[in-house]
Amino acid sequence: MNTTNNTILISGGSAGIGFEMAKLLSEKGNNVIITGRDEERLQQAAAKLKNVKTIVSDVSNPQAIDSLVAQLYSDFPQLNMVINNADRALVYDLVAD
């Protein structure tokens, strides 16, 4: 697998593991697109990285996913790698009454 000169989407790329992957991959000469729900956090992350674009998107929202896919097809037709890093924490009671 070629690890340079790719266009890579990383969901959940504004912090944590996603941010570190974006950092490493952008340093290797890739064009990286990071997504997340918080525009301010995305902009802060992008300011620390090179060759990075941001898209505000919530992967827990089906309409937002459809919009993201449409934007990717339109703006990044050369996209050739996707890293699905975003997660969604659900809170629920493990003990039934």
Would you kindly provide a written description of the structure presented here, covering whatever features stand out?
By secondary structure, the protein is of the alpha/beta class. The chain is built from three helices and four strands. A four-stranded parallel beta sheet has the order 3-2-1-4, covered by helices on one side. It is globular.
Q: Quick recap of the structure?
A:
This protein has 97 residues and is α/β, with parallel strands linked by helices. It contains three helices and four strands; from the N terminus they run βαβαβαβ.
Q: What percentage of residues falls in helices of 4 or more residues?
A: 25-40%
CATH domain class: Alpha Beta
Determine the strand fraction and express it as a percent band: 15-25%
Low-confidence stretches: none
The average pLDDT is 92
CATH T-level topology: Rossmann fold
Q: Order of strands across the widest beta sheet?
A: 3-2-1-4
Main β-sheet description = 4 strands, parallel
CATH architecture: 3-Layer(aba) Sandwich
Class from secondary-structure proportions: alpha/beta
How many E-type strands?
4
C-alpha end-to-end distance: 51 Å
Shape: globular
CATH superfamily: NAD(P)-binding Rossmann-like Domain
Given the structure, what is the number of helices?
A: 3
Number of domains: 1
Report the C-alpha radius of gyration, rounded: 15 Å
Order of helices and strands: EHEHEHE
